[in-house]
Amino acid sequence: NTNKDWTSFVLTENASDAIGILNNSASYNKMSVEYKYELMPNRSWRCQVYLQDHCLAEGFGTKKTSKHAAAEEALKILQKMQSNIASLKVTQVQKVGCSSRGSGRKKDLKDLVIYENSSNPVCTLNDTAQFNKMTVEYIFERMTGMRWKCKVMLEDEFIAEAVGVKKSVKHEAAEEAVKILKKTQPTVVNNLKKGTVEDVISRNEIRGRSAEEAFKQKIKEDNIGNQILRKMGWTGGGLGKDGEGIREPISVKEQFKREGLGLDVERVNRIAKRDIEEIIRNYARSDSHIDLTFSRELTMDERKQIHQIAQKYGLKSKSHGQGHNRYLVVSRKRRKEDLLDQLKQEGQVGHYELIMPQAN
């Protein structure tokens, strides 16, 4: 990569000699290292090392020994430069969550509740910060070569740290932080992603619940239409002089105009918006603490409708899984304190479970 500056070169000391270290480091940094030879008047050779077209060092001797001498000199220069960079303590900071700074009141970590929604410790820390309305910071400090230190800070308080390659050091520091926090703080575990999803609402059940609701709303004796008909002499059964008419009121059904053979089956099987809304509205008005989990067989458009209807009734909705395994969960918006109180009383609320600290 010709756009990279040679001064950003990072050494990876994973070879036995200077040439191997330079070549492996060049591959890691995606930079170019070149060796250029020149025959001197005294019949010796000069070898120059170029890093990103910058002449870094040179060595003299035979054609073979001059290359080793030049590589060793280049390695010394890079090691010195890298130790200077390390002494400057190059740091990077990543922040997640909402900070309490500026509010005049710092949040106390003794009230922290760990929220575990995943087996990934970084996700657990990030979800915990958002659940508690706190800030988690990952502070990276370059040590030497490929070694980095990552510190985990919660509300400006140090929790844990790890040293390793940058690719994995954040995960290792987060894992250590979660382990430390679990010793003193309660954990709310969301078991939704663990194992198979049970008690899902299928396409047929959505229609079934809607039909059941319609049956409950049949014309009863206290209905004004029922009373008018009885005053006109109707005693029940079919309408008409001889009772040959219909017995039940006409139910509203979706009809696709002029469609018979060759009808798009997927369109016929589509769930009506009113069927979905009936279920969500009843859930919003109920006292149920169990989340609504809709089946994987629903289409993307149907899930979109559920998201919109849930928002309309002040509920949360979130899709889980990928592709054909994607399903949707509708739940109540719970305050941390309310959920904790319920969990302390009942032990489990819907998909949520409370685990107390592992050590005193």
Walk me through the structure.
This is NF-kappa-B-repressing factor. With 360 residues, this protein is α+β, with helices and mostly antiparallel strands. It folds into 3 domains: 77 residues, Double Stranded RNA Binding Domain, CATH 3.30.160.20; 77 residues, 2-Layer Sandwich (Double Stranded RNA Binding Domain), CATH 3.30.160; 117 residues, 2-Layer Sandwich (Ribosomal Protein S8, Chain: A, domain 1). It has 10 helices and 14 strands. The strands form 4 sheets. Strands 4-6-7-8 form a 4-stranded antiparallel sheet. A 4-stranded mixed sheet has the order 5-9-14-13, with helices on both faces. Helix 1 crosses helix 2 and helix 8 packs parallel to helix 9. It starts with 17 loop residues before the first helix and ends in a 5-residue tail after the last strand.
Fold blueprint:
Blueprint: H1 18-29, E1 33-39, E2 45-51, E3 54-61, H2 63-87, E4 91-97, E5 114-116, H3 121-131, E6 135-142, E7 147-154, E8 157-165, H4 166-182, E9 187-190, H5 203-216, H6 224-231, H7 265-268, H8 273-285, E10 292-294, H9 300-312, E11 316-320, E12 327-331, H10 336-346, E13 348-349, E14 352-355
Parallel strand pairs: 5-9
Antiparallel strand pairs: 1-2, 2-3, 4-6, 6-7, 7-8, 9-14, 10-12, 11-12, 13-14
